[in-house]
Amino acid sequence: MILDSQQNDTSFADVWEELVWRGLVHVSTDQAALKELLSGEPITYYCGFDPTAPSLHLGNLVQLLTMRRIQLAGHKPLGLVGGSTGLIGDPRPTAERTLNTKETVAEWVGHLQGQVSRFLSGEGENAVRLVNNLDWTGELSAIDFLREIGKHYRVGTMLKKDAVASRLNSDAGISYTEFSYQILQGFDYLELFRLYGCVLQTGGSDQWGNLTSGTDLIHRVEGVSVHAIGTPLITNSDGSKFGKSEGNAIWLDPEMCSPYRFYQFWLNSDDADVISRLKVFTFLGRQRIEELAALVENEPFRREAQRTLANEVTTLVHGADATAAVIAASEALFGQGDLAALDADTLESALRELPNTTTSPDAQIAQLLLDTGLVKSASEGRRAIAQGGVSLDNVKVDDETATLEGRVAPGGMAVLRRGKKTLAGIFVE
Length: 429
Prior knowledge:
The chain has about 425 residues and is α/β, with parallel strands linked by helices. The protein has helices at about 1-5, 15-20, 30-40, 60-70, 100-120, 135, 140-150, 155-160, 160-170, 175-180, 180-195, 210-220, 260-265, 270-280, 285-300, 305-320, 320-335, 345-350, 365-370, 380-385; strands spanning about 25-30, 45-50, 75-80, 130, 200-205, 225-230, 245, 250, 355-360, 390, 395, 415-420, 420-429.
């Protein structure tokens, strides 16, 4: 198992130092206290994941791997999937969330719990425990909630939270529902403190207001100081939002983001981003990452760091077999492997990422060059064929009037190539 091979870097004095080196601490409560806490006896800590979609995404993966590093140091993780907070949704910067049905949220809770359990060990004295905040909020009346929890919050303080303040200054404003989200998350921390002695919460730095909602509540109610770590929001070197590709999030579920697309996302990392990605998203040690950093600096054309990153993270999320399949697909698409040896699912997911078209078995290849955007006109397509620059499944097409007939069976797929690196996918009805 992948979990069995994971370990923290022993060149660091403790996990806190490694978290800092990997750039995972953007904001936190008292750092000296956290260093002492994480280098001492096992503690219980948690991170929450709201089921606002049927899958986790790359932003959630930052939290899962941060949790795993702390677990590897001997501490006890609680993976909270928010069956109640998922019914509300934390405030987005610009507009209200669409509320999903209770049935949908319950279904997604199951999906996310399965994903969380894959990244955290369920064995040993510090095995992960999955919790659902609907267990302690589901039967709580509004009156009890206001009396027991709401009385500890001051509206003035709540209004200053970044997520709330940004919405108040927008045209959309903010509903009382989303305004109350921070109270629910604070209540989660209080309950986990009471039930399991939880003393640390991790989350994204954009959630800092919600994280401190819990630390403040526990201090008021229990008179105890607990902790929070806010990881940085991962952005690309150009400032664009990380984990977005053509407007679509990079999901961890292979049905929502194919392993091929997932692998290519990492492979296409910019030189300016790849080393920080290796620190955050892999368990490679400091020495190996520094070696890769030197290669980026001195031999960037090799793209060794990008290939290592893509291999490591795809294996982590989808497994070694899926990673081997997508690497084979990448090589075969570019003429360095056997297309016939690829399994149909991997080939299809790869072709779907290329310009592609669905056509009939008797379609002319020159026209398909146009339909897929490999040429600008059918005549240009015929010239490309005449010049010997077109192939189908790595077999050169030498007839300007050639069709797919006899080359691709109905229900089949093919790789159409112009030149060495310009590819398209063909799907035959």
